[in-house]
Design a protein that fits this description.
Number of strands: 15
Low-confidence stretches: 1-35
CATH class of the largest domain: Alpha Beta
Number of helices: 17
Strand content: 15-25%
CATH superfamily of the largest domain: Response regulator
Shape: globular
């Protein structure tokens, strides 16, 4: 019997008896209406399983300005999933540990997250993933690194890379230069390189030098320098590389890159720059320091996409950025690739997590279930090349796009489709 039928029946009565019937029925109906949503909420709370995603990142150290936005991207995607695209029976939450780029804090950070129930750990720092990799295997907690290095992927384990080697990206841009250089009118281009004196930087510098020396019909090798992070004085490097047509600046930090370009241009030298994701990562800092004109025509290889790419994933992340960080959104976009690149990488991780939960059920989900799903997972992310791992493959990306800095557009502009990376 509906509420309206009850009401009509009550209205047929008369006198005090009818009055008490109306009151009684009204109270019963009110109690029923109030109780039903409470029962539904109680059932929903009872069935929800909270799954924690931990991150070990730099929030207050030297890389903080570039990495905070990566943390925002993960938090915003989790909010979006919980509120608009929920995983049945699951409430996701994020928990971040600030390692401040101090290697001594990596293991304490891992233990802190593990003790608080993290089922998966994400880090933008590949050396952090290397340090915690053996503990991840012991505890069966998959670790995802947003950057890559050979030691991290050389043997299959519980660490997975959502990126590729910086030296491969650098070689791919170098190959693009040779494929589009006018040798008839401009001769063989002179090439030099400056890289930071860290393992990945040394790998990039060696790869560029070896490639140029192995292909003397394509490149004339001028020389290179390995420098500490944060270098600001470049007199000897500028003098050595003054005759270059192209300069590789792989993995330089924002201060080193911008001060070198400033001092190189001040001497009137016009070599164009090629890099991988270093320049896109610090776009805002470099442009504020030297302006678009001094980096016009620079080339960068990006494995995840850029803000002006016409992909639904880019639209989603931009929408989330303005929704949850309206006051900081424009500055975040201008600063560089952090939010968009890290967001796309972490979106992929969340889709793996979703599939693992759906396959075994929320209550039976654990690290082993996630590991089993990771090694089988493949996905094309709305216009991007297919990403995926296997039992032996720990790099999920093998394509990049080439972007050119345009002073006219005041932006990076894609000048290629997705192309396979040059591997050495």
């Amino acid at each position: 019997m509906s509420v309206f039928e009850i009401q009509r029946k009550v209205e047929r009565g008369s006198g005090m008896k009818c009055y008490f019937k109306r009151v009684t029925v009204a109270l019963l109906v009110l109690a029923l209406l109030l109780t039903m949503p409470l029962l539904g909420c109680a059932k929903e709370v009872e069935e929800k399983v909270t799954i924690t995603i931990g991150t070990i990142t730099d929030l207050t150290g030297p890389a903080g300005p570039a990495l905070v936005s990566l943390t925002w991207a993960l938090e915003d995607l989790v909010k979006h999933i919980n509120e608009e695209d929920p995983i049945p029976g699951v409430e996701l939450r994020t928990l971040a540990y600030d390692c401040r780029m101090d290697p001594a804090r990596d293991i304490p950070g891992y233990d802190w997250l593990r003790e608080r129930g993290a089922k998966v750990i994400i880090t933008p720092l590949e050396y952090t993933a290397i340090v915690v990799k053996p503990f991840a295997k012991r505890d069966q907690i998959p670790v995802f690194s947003l950057s890559a290095s050979q030691p991290l992927v050389e043997s299959p384990g519980w660490a997975f890379c959502l990126n590729t080697f910086a030296r491969w990206e650098t070689l791919t841009v170098l190959e693009w230069v040779s494929d589009h250089w006018d040798y008839v009118n401009d001769g063989i281009p002179k090439i030099g390189c400056i890289a930071p004196s860290v393992s990945a930087g040394i790998e990039c510098e060696e790869a560029v030098k070896d490639h140029c020396q192995a292909n003397p019909d394509k490149f004339e090798w001028v020389g290179s320098s390995l420098v500490p992070m944060g270098t600001v004085s470049w007199a000897s490097e500028v003098a050595k590389l003054k005759g270059c047509d192209w300069l590789g600046l792989p993995l330089l930090d924002a201060v080193s890159m911008s001060t070198f370009i400033e001092q190189f241009r001040a001497q009137g030298y016009t070599a164009k720059i090629f890099t991988q994701e270093a320049l896109p990562a610090f776009r805002g800092f470099v442009v504020d320091k030297v302006g678009y004109e001094d980096i016009d025509g620079s080339l960068a290889a990006i494995a995840t996409g850029w803000w002006n790419d016409p992909y639904p994933m880019v639209d989603l992340l931009e929408d989330l950025l303005y929704r949850y960080h309206a006051d900081e959104a424009e500055d975040t976009i201008y600063s560089g690739i952090g939010y968009i690149g890290g967001g796309i990488q972490q979106y992929f991780i969340l889709q793996i997590l979703r599939q693992a939960i759906e396959e075994v059920g929320a209550k039976d989900f654990d690290g082993q279930a996630l590991y089993d799903t990771v090694t089988e997972f493949k996905m094309v992310i709305q216009g991007f090349e297919e990403w995926g791992f296997s039992d032996t493959k720990r790099l999920c990306l093998d394509h990049v796009k080439i972007y050119e800095v345009s002073a006219e557009a005041e932006d990076l502009v894609a000048i290629s489709d997705w192309i396979p990376m040059v591997e050495d």
